[in-house]
Amino acid sequence: MNLKKVLVLVICLLFVSVASAQEGKILTQNEKDSKIATFKQSVNSCPGGLIFGVYSINYERMIKPKHGLVARFDFEDILAKYSGDKFEATGLGFILNYRRHFSPSLKSFYLGSYARYRVYDGTGEDGPDEFNFDITEFTIGLNAGKRWVWSSGFNINFMLGYGIAFTETKVEEIYEAAYDNFTDKYSFEGPMLGEFSIGWAF
Asked: Could you tell me which residues come within 8 angstroms of residue 112 by beta carbon, excluding any fewer than 6 positions away?
C-alpha cells in the first residue's frame, strides 16, 4: 500500500471516529463547553489538498493552558506538462509550529511561529532530453489562525502564515531555461504557509 492510500485511509477512519463520537446523549451548552475544555490534543488533515496532489496530516498538543505545539507532515506528488515538456516530482515537508492561544483551549484564535523544511526530487524533459533537479528549502515565519471545536471532537482549523525562505536548487545549467519555465507556472518554493483542515480533538 503506497503513501497516498495510507493517508486517504487515515482520513476515512477519522470521519468514522467523529461520526461514532457524535452518537451519544444530548448535552447542554455548559456540558458541551466543559467537554471541549478537556480536549488537549488534535489530529487534523487537509482534504482539499488531495485535489492538488498534496497529502497533509498534523498533530497539536496543548503543553500549557494557552500554549500549543504542532508537528505537520506533507507529501506532494506533482505530474504536469508545460510547453509540451513533462515534469514529475515528489516533495516531503516537515513543519514545527508554536501557537499562543487567546483562550486556554484548542477552541481559540491563536498567533504563532513556525519552521518548515521541504525537499523535492524531480525529473523534467527538455525536448528529447531528460534531466534531474533537486530543491531544498528552509522557512521561518509567523502565523495566525483559529480552530473551531465541537463537543464530539470534530474540529476545523484555518491558518495563514508568512516568512522568509532559504532555497537551494540543483539543476544542470543547460536545462535551467526549461526548469525556469516550469517553475514560473508551478512554484515549489515560497514563504507562504496555509492550512484549512478538519480533524478530531481528544
From this structure: 70, 97, 98, 99, 100, 142, 143, 144, 145, 161
Question: Are 83 and 70 contacting, i.e. CB atoms less than 8 angstroms apart?
Answer: no
Per residue of the chain (202 residues), what is the pLDDT tens digit?
Answer: 555 556 566 666 555 555 455 445 577 877 788 899 999 999 999 988 777 788 999 999 999 999 999 999 999 988 776 556 688 889 999 999 999 999 999 999 999 999 999 999 999 888 888 899 999 999 999 999 999 999 999 999 999 999 999 999 999 988 888 888 777 777 766 889 999 999 999 9
The rounded distance, in Å, linking the Cα atoms of 119 and 166 is: 12
Q: What contacts 24+ positions apart, CB below 8 Å, involve 12-18?
A: 14/43, 14/45, 14/198, 14/199, 14/200, 17/153, 17/200, 18/152, 18/153, 18/154, 18/200
Q: Which pTM does this prediction carry?
A: 0.81
User: All 3 cell numbers of residue 68?
Assistant: 500549543
Round to the nearest angstrom and report the end-to-end CA distance of the chain. 28
- Residue 143 grid cell: 502565523
Q: How far is the C-alpha of 41 from the C-alpha of 150, rounded, in Å?
A: 13
By three-state DSSP, how is residue 187 classified?
A: coil
What does each C-alpha distance from 16 to 13, 55, 173, 199 come to in angstroms? 5, 19, 51, 11
Residues 6+ apart with CB under 8 A from 81: 87
